[in-house]
Amino acid sequence: MPGFQTRAIHAGEIDPVLGAVTLPTFSSATYESGGETRYDDVRYIRLNNTPNHRVLHAKLAELEGAEAALVTGSGMSAITTALLSVLKAGDHLLAQRMLYGGTHSFVTRDLERWGIEHDLIDADDPDSWKAKLRPNTRAVYVESLTNPLVTIGALDQVAPFAREHGLVSLIDSTFATPVNFRPIEHGFDLVLHSATKYLNGHGDIVAGAVIGATERVDAITHDLNHLGGSLNPQACALLHRGLRTLGLRMRQHDANGLALARFLEEHPAVERVHYPGLESHPDHARAKAWFSGCGGVLSFELRGGVEVADQVLKHVRLPAVAPSLGSVESLITRPATTSHSGIDPELRRALGVPDELIRVACGVEDAEDLVADFEQAIAKAAGG
């Protein structure tokens, strides 16, 4: 099989259109009928089946080692549509306790509006999962690398547990990408991505992806087509462009994340660093066994609390103070004010996300420049 980067460039591509080496953007909302008999096959922009969509679907499936893929209008659209496709009123979901803030709110607040129950599980303790099962449990949901503490749960136990109990296993693998971890190879049924992040890699679109077996992806496609969470062809073209350099970019994200984490771990002003690429991290053995790299996201806590943390955000020069991750430029934020601001403060702290926690999404700048920038920012913050 060709290597990852070769497949990122060539997988799913169609014959050149009028000789164009780069796939054109097909902006047409409607297409001539080709004799389609199913609603979902009618060629129409909202049904996510323009040539730009189809190439992305084939490429993403190939990169994840799956049968099929679907792109959506956002990462949350991928997550919510997938969950609503595998669950119905009266069903029960098991979900990892530490989740991205938007997902956590959807699971713990919104699902009940559809009559769907849930329990949160400790992803580190698979022996405790069975006790949370109910006769109506239908799915289990986890993340490959959690946001913002970058932990790795007992991922090798999720798919076997799901198969044993007749559950659908879903995993948000945004932070890992198929470069570093391919959940299908570990038995997961559905892989979800916020393609806004690493898959696109340039911070200029919002998109999502659902990847898995054809039958499951077809069912989610049908639901998405009714819910209307389509990805416009212009965004498809930008995502297509980003995917073709994914392997190259992830090498630098991985290297920068590890270099900055090692620097921070040794800094006397830093209380704690969260990055599983560090040998000292409790999940390092899992990272080494299952992952090719740990990505560019890390978080850390400084001595001195929120005031010092805000001073660091004020004095860094390279990272933009902004949410999101996975772009070529570095970003920095306090999750308590962005990704996890919708979670009750007491619960947020119980989850291990204190107000002073800083999350860094390393871009692809030179590692030594990032380290130097944080060195000067922390010095200024610690000095007043």
Primary descriptors:
13 helices, single chain, Aspartate Aminotransferase, domain 2, 12 strands, alpha/beta, Aspartate Aminotransferase, domain 1, 384 residues, 5-stranded mixed beta sheet, 2 domains
Explained architecture:
With 384 residues, the protein is an alpha/beta fold. It has 2 domains: 4-243, Aspartate Aminotransferase, domain 2 (3-Layer(aba) Sandwich); 247-382, Aspartate Aminotransferase, domain 1 (Alpha-Beta Complex). It is built from 13 helices and 12 strands. It has helices spanning 4-10, 51-64, 75-86, 101-110, 155-164, 177-180, 214-227, 233-243, 246-266, 284-290, 305-315, 345-350, 367-382; strands spanning 68-72, 92-96, 117-121, 137-143, 168-172, 190-194, 208-212, 270-274, 297-302, 320-321, 331-333, 358-361. It has a 7-stranded mixed sheet with strand order 1-7-6-5-4-2-3, sandwiched between helices. Strands 8-9-12-11-10 form a 5-stranded mixed sheet. Helix 2 packs parallel to helix 8 and helix 11 packs across helix 13. The longest helix has 21 residues, at 246-266. It starts with a helix and ends with a helix. 48% of the residues are buried. The model has no long low-confidence stretch (mean pLDDT 95).
CATH class term of the largest domain: Alpha Beta
Question: How are the strands of the largest sheet arranged?
Answer: 1-7-6-5-4-2-3
Structural class: alpha/beta
Topology order in helix (H) and strand (E) letters: HHEHEHEEHEHEEHHHEHEHEEHEH
Rg of Cα set: 21 Å
C-alpha end-to-end distance: 56 Å
Strand residues, percent = 5-15%
Mean pLDDT: 95
Helix content: 25-40%
The CATH topology of the largest domain is given as Aspartate Aminotransferase, domain 2
CATH architecture of the largest domain: 3-Layer(aba) Sandwich
- Please, how many helices? 13
Give a short account of the largest sheet. 7 strands, mixed
Shape: globular
Task: Please tell me the total number of domains.
Answer: 2
CATH superfamily of the largest domain: Type I PLP-dependent aspartate aminotransferase-like (Major domain)
**E-strand count:** 12
- Uncertain ranges: none
